[in-house]
Design brief:
The chain is of the alpha+beta class. The chain contains 12 helices and 15 strands. Strands 2-1-5-4-3 form a 5-stranded antiparallel β-sheet, with helices on both faces. The protein has a 5-stranded antiparallel β-sheet with strand order 6-15-14-11-12, with helices on one face. The longest helix has 37 residues, at 237-273. The relative contact order is 0.08.
Length: 539
């Protein structure tokens, strides 16, 4: 019987060597065979030595024959192989769970959880601090709250194992490479450790730690992880080996997510810089907005533009595509609309017609949706046009007096008019105590889709206390429902705004976002941008 050769499994070197033959292979000559051996080869012939005499007899010490000893060795090999297969199955399961994470925070939490399972610890923390200095820098804990992490950070950096790894400080006996691991198996008993470290460890209830670096090309060191034991302990060689295999994969995954995070942050920053930094203050109007950029960066935008004579221009739109090119196109389109609005804002159809012509001439391969609304104070209101036919018209002695409407400003205010036009965009929704309804806008194609765009404008008169909602189709798409049901859901969300909150546009948009998007605006699983702009008209 021949013991099988132990194969190498997934990079794990077999620690048990292949046992020597204890039973002659099939067909080999043995001393019991007639004619075996020859006088010229004493090794092949029978021997009178005591060792040869005992070869077929039971072992006096163990009571086992050589055949039984070989079976025991084979069983040991099989047990070792079964252990390797179990380890590989565990690593496969843990790396699969890590691969499902889509954000840095998710990946760091999963790294801590898996590492704690592999080394037999209950708590730990990971510090993300890329060596290239481009960030982001963050600390995530497992079984540690912000207060506990804060206590640990009060320990001098030279006394913290993970901090020494991050700072590249060499350890005694280390080679100075990025594979340096630091184990502190008995913190209370090691008198050479910093007293502050022992004090914090006693307060938090841990007695040992095991820290490892996280490195990946091309950044190099991207962070460090440390796991904490409740009792004096340190990982075995097998546990160290498994953690080494896991963190090699985890570091590469973190490096990919880090690069993606930086790209998204850059796109989001560019997007935010191209949108209004703050909403304008217009007499008689209050504004609120909620906006979120998709992970890849999209072309949804909004604007609230103060115009001459106390007028206000409102706009929302969406450029096709995603990524930096769509964000740049959005910025160009928004800037152009602002210029046209200043020159001819009182005619929204003219504004969108000029915008469509510009888009068709400069970016013929791109299309966009847009909605532009223009409103000015009602006649006689502060900052608005004078009342037609007032006593003060043409008489300088009565100017500033006759423009006050009969009964004074405490009487019912004159209605405010709002003119709007849309190009393939979602219809606005108006919300008040007496009505919640979509504004009937004329059907029109998006900008850049037709040789000549034109659509009639729509005029509405929002009453005092009503709110006009402008939004992008991303708000509807993020619900995951068909558009007809998404519109109905938006209508229901607006109608369900509590009456006490309807005079606060901030409360209105928050309520609608919660009702439409229970997962919140910042949902990494969605590629859609979201814009929700609320305009409340004071009574």
């Amino acid at each position: 019987m021949t013991a099988p050769h132990v194969p190498k499994v997934a990079g794990i070197e077999p620690a048990l060597p292949t046992p020597a033959h204890t039973v002659a292979p099939h067909g080999a000559k043995t001393p019991a065979d007639p004619g075996a051996g020859s006088p010229s080869d004493p090794s092949d012939g029978p021997s009178d030595t005591p060792e040869a005499a005992r070869e077929g007899a039971p072992d006096s010490a163990s009571g086992l024959s050589p055949d039984l000893s070989a079976i025991d060795q084979l069983a040991a090999v099989q047990d070792r192989l079964a252990g390797w297969i179990s380890d590989l199955s565990t690593l496969h399961e843990l790396t699969e769970q890590l691969a499902r994470t889509r954000t840095l925070e998710q990946a760091l939490h999963e790294l801590l959880r898996a590492g704690a399972a592999l080394v037999g610890a209950r708590r730990g923390m990971v510090v993300l601090a890329p060596a290239d200095g481009l960030g982001p820098e963050t600390t995530v804990g497992l079984g540690l709250g912000h207060a506990e992490i804060g206590h640990i950070e009060t320990v001098p950096r030279r006394a913290l194992s993970y901090a020494r790894i991050l700072d590249g400080l060499p350890e005694p006996g280390s080679t100075g490479d990025d594979t340096c691991e630091i184990s502190e198996p008995d913190i209370p008993g090691e008198k050479d450790l910093d007293p502050r470290l022992r004090e914090v460890a006693a307060r938090l209830g841990y007695a040992a730690s095991y820290a490892v670096p996280l490195t990946a090309a091309p950044i190099g060191r991207i962070g460090a992880a440390v796991w904490l034991y409740d009792e004096p302990a340190e990982p075995t060689e097998r546990q160290r080996h498994l953690v080494g295999l896991y963190r090699a994969h985890a570091s590469e995954h973190l490096a990919r997510l880090l690069e993606l995070h930086r790209s998204r942050q850059a796109t989001e920053t560019l997007h935010e810089e191209l949108l209004p930094r703050r909403l304008p203050r217009i007499p008689g109007v209050r504004l609120a907005v909620r906006h979120s950029t998709g992970p890849r960066g999209g072309g949804d935008w909004y604007d609230a533009l103060p115009l001459p004579d106390g007028a206000l221009g409102l706009a929302v739109g969406s450029v096709t595509g995603s990524g930096p090119s769509a964000v740049a196109a959005m910025g160009r389109l928004r800037a152009s609309l602002r210029a046209y609005a200043v020159m001819e804002g009182e005619d929204p159809v003219a504004v969108l017609s000029d915008l469509e012509l510009l888009l068709r001439l400069t970016e013929p391969a791109r299309s966009a949706t847009a909605l532009f609304a223009f409103t000015e104070p009602p006649p006689g209101a502060p900052g608005g046009p004078p009342v037609a036919g007032g006593l003060g018209d043409g008489d300088p002695l009565l100017d500033g007096v006759a423009d006050t409407p009969p009964g004074g400003w405490g009487s019912a205010p004159m209605p405010r008019k709002l003119v709007l036009a849309g190009a393939g965009h979602c219809p606005p929704l108006i919300l008040g105590d007496l009505r919640t309804e979509f504004v009937e806008t004329s059907l029109s194609a998006p900008l850049g889709m037709l040789a000549c765009w034109e659509a009639p404008s729509v005029e509405i008169e929002p009453a005092g206390g009503e709110t006009l909602l402008l939004y992008s189709d991303g708000l509807l798409h993020r619900t995951g429902e068909p558009m007809e049901r998404a519109f109905a859901r938006l209508h229901t969300a607006a109608a369900s705004v509590p009456r006490a909150s309807r005079r606060d546009p901030e409360a209105v948009v928050d309520h609608i976002v919660r009702a439409m998007l229970p997962q919140g605006l910042d949902d990494p699983s969605s590629e859609e941008d979201v814009v929700l702009l609320a305009t409340y008209f004071e009574g």
